[in-house]
Amino acid sequence: MAAPPSTSKAEQILGRARVGIEPVLARWGTEVAPAIAYSIVSPGKCLRGALLLETYRASGGRDPRAAELAAAVEVIHAYSLVHDDLPCMDDAALRRGRPATHRAFGVEAATRAGFAMVPLAAHHLARGAAALQLDGEAVGAIVREVFAAAGAGGMIGGQYLDLEAEGRDLTPEALEQMHRAKTGALITAACSVGGLAARANRATLAGLRGYGDAL
């Protein structure tokens, strides 16, 4: 009988993260509207959540409830995908191997779902941080980190640059600027939040931010 294919280190990390994150998202999915549940309980890689959990562990964190923070970051990512797929944006028919949210529930419901996922993530970020018994300063730092990455200086700004770039030739510098905002900002934030959740010192936080930025 042939041996099973080997699993890479990256696949192991992503698989371990999904074991912690997916049950949390499934639980939240029972508490929200169907279009939101459809959007957050979907077969994604959980890359950003995995980075948060790995940097949390690397910084000395051991509490499994950090998965709540990782799941909240995945909700932010999922919100961006829902709106990115809308007809007024990329008009994508499929997302993660199944109909995009607006194809399954309609444009209006998908638009509302995306907006509702932002406060949903904020609520669970705060609850997750409280479960880890972080103080107010750390909770504030975590929320600011995530929503700075999600805002005009991050994902939203990057999406704007992406739409503006359609049909144009970009310089390598402009292309990098777009990707650092649209995709990279939340990746960097996930790495930073892992350290903040583990109460890492300033030097460690700077290293994690540098790692996320380079990634």
Task: Explain what you see.
With about 220 residues, the protein is mainly α. It has helices at about 10-30, 35-40, 45-60, 65-85, 100-105, 105-130, 135-150, 155-165, 170-195, 200-215, and strands at about 95, 100. A two-stranded antiparallel sheet has the order 1-2. The longest helix is centred in the C-terminal third of the chain and has 26 residues, at about 170-195. It is globular. The model has no long low-confidence stretch (mean pLDDT about 95).
The string of secondary-structure elements, in order, is HHHHEEHHHHHH
The proportion of strand residues reads under 5%
Low-pLDDT residue intervals, each spanning 5 or more residues: none
Work out the number of β strands. Answer: 2
Radius of gyration: 17 Å
**Global outline:** globular
For the termini, the CA-CA separation is 39 Å
Alpha plus pi helix count? 10
Strand order, largest beta sheet: 1-2
> What's the pLDDT, averaged over the residues?
94
Structural class: mainly alpha
Provide the helix percentage: over 70%
> Could you give a short account of the major beta sheet?
2 strands, antiparallel
